[in-house]
Amino acid sequence: MLLLRRAMADDVPFLVSTDLLVDLQDETDDTSRSAPAYAEGWGEHERAEHRAKIAAYVDDADKGAWVYEDTERMRNVGLIMCWFRDRRREPRTAATDFLFRFIDESVLPPDGCFCEVFQLWVDPAYRRRGLASALKRQVEDESRQRGIGMIYTHTRERNAHVVELNRKLGYVEVRRGPMWDDVARVSLVKWLMM
Ligand SMILES: CC(C)(COP(=O)(O)OP(=O)(O)OC[C@H]1O[C@@H](n2cnc3c(N)ncnc32)[C@H](O)[C@@H]1OP(=O)(O)O)[C@@H](O)C(=O)NCCC(=O)NCCS
């Protein structure tokens, strides 16, 4: 059985290694590379910092993480991580301002509350079965429960299938072009019916 559930402390190693894997494969176009190889150049401090950043998606009240578990095989086969933000109340730091170096704040709802998707991944053996769509709908449900009316996400322009996945779920494009590097990215938002 495939079970969609909230991520727990025990899931953090899976979240950490998958986050590294997705970023590595995205950057290198090499889906055979493994996460540990990517992190080989990292020192203890960088590993601990990355682990803490990912664990926050499980621990912090303004973040959320869900996994798909194949209960028969007792392994996780999908994940989504997101950040529930309140632009009017959150502290202004390099981390909270980062997105707004590229995105105009006018795309946000008037109350400044929105959900930012941080990571989405489904095991290759389980793809095209609607798992990613269900994970994204889970984030929509949680956002509505928190009174949040908009979800923001971005992906590389060349990931046309991810753009299509989002379009099917009702996302609309709000920006296209390079952000923090020279890679063209597509920014999309979905307005939620409350
Ligand atoms: C992108 C990803 C999360 C999609 O997961 P998934 O569970 O296969 O997605 P879904 O089954 O919910 O797909 C929904 C729709 O999106 C589109 N889609 C998804 N993957 C596609 C693909 N490889 N090719 C074409 N269309 C695709 C289709 O329209 C699909 O509907 P359909 O199957 O009825 O045609 C998965 O491929 C993945 O983990 N990729 C690597 C990590 C990644 O790119 N994450 C996103 C970073 S922004």
Give a topology summary.
Elements: E1 2-6, H1 12-28, H2 35-39, H3 44-59, E2 63-70, E3 75-86, H4 94-97, E4 113-122, H5 131-145, E5 150-156, H6 160-168, E6 172-178, E7 184-191
Parallel strand pairs: 4-5
Antiparallel strand pairs: 1-2, 2-3, 3-4, 5-7, 6-7
Helix pairs in contact: 1-3
Bound molecules: coenzyme A.
Structure report:
This protein is of the alpha+beta class and 194 residues long. The protein has a single domain (2-191), classed as Gcn5-related N-acetyltransferase (GNAT) (Aminopeptidase, 3-Layer(aba) Sandwich). It has helices at 12-28, 35-39, 44-59, 94-97, 131-145, 160-168; strands at residues 2-6, 63-70, 75-86, 113-122, 150-156, 172-178, 184-191. The protein has a seven-stranded mixed β-sheet, sandwiched between helices. α1 crosses α3. The longest helix is centred in the first third of the chain and has 17 residues, at 12-28. It is globular, with a radius of gyration of 16 Å. The mean pLDDT is 93. Bound molecules: coenzyme A.
